[in-house]
Amino acid sequence: MKTIDKYKVKDVLRLNSIKEFLSFDESIICHQYILGRTGKLSERIIKAVELIDGYGWKPPEMRISVERTVVYYDNQLGTYRYIGFYDNEILTQIDKL
After folding, report:
1. Measured between alpha carbons, how far is 41 from 80 in angstroms, rounded to an integer?
2. pLDDT for 30-56, tens place per residue?
3. Residues 6 or more apart from 68 whose CB is under 8 A from it?
4. pLDDT the model gives residue 1
5. Radius of gyration, alpha carbons of the chain
6. At what angle do helices 6-18 and 24-34 cross, to 10 degrees?
7. Considering the entire predicted model, what is its pTM?
8. Which residues, 6+ apart, have CB-to-CB distance to 97 below 8 Å?
9. What DSSP letter does each residue of 27-75 carry, written as one string?
């Protein structure tokens, strides 16, 4: 089994912040992998990494707003927007995992 860069696993978690597709256990596995506490990733996580690589997806700049919601920076509008407005083709593909 090949080693996957921990930064790619962080991108899986970032994508999960936008489109909650990981189970709680899969999310914990990602965090443990990043911390070096496990060397195993589920097939679904590996497929998510491959999907992210295949699309060349880069996560948008995200943060927690004062209303305690996740927002992302929309480059076209030049402002932060609620994450529910984020649109990218990868979001439709991630549902197929």
Report:
1. 33
2. 999 999 999 999 999 999 999 999 999
3. none
4. 57
5. 14
6. 150
7. 0.91
8. 21, 44, 47, 48, 51
9. HHHHHHHHTTS-----HHHHHHHHHHHHHT--PPPEEE-TTS-EEEEET
Burial group, residue 48, by CB count within 10 angstroms (0-12, 13-18, 19+):
buried
Pairwise CA distance, residues 89 & 39, whole Å: 30
How many degrees, rounded to 5, is the angle at CA 62 between CA 52 and CA 6? 45
Structure tokens at 55: 């699309």
Quote the Cα angle for 91-92-96, to 5°: 110
* Unique residue bearing structure tokens 């978690």: 13
Sheet holding 62-64, edge to edge: 62-64, 70-74, 79-82
DSSP state of 22: S
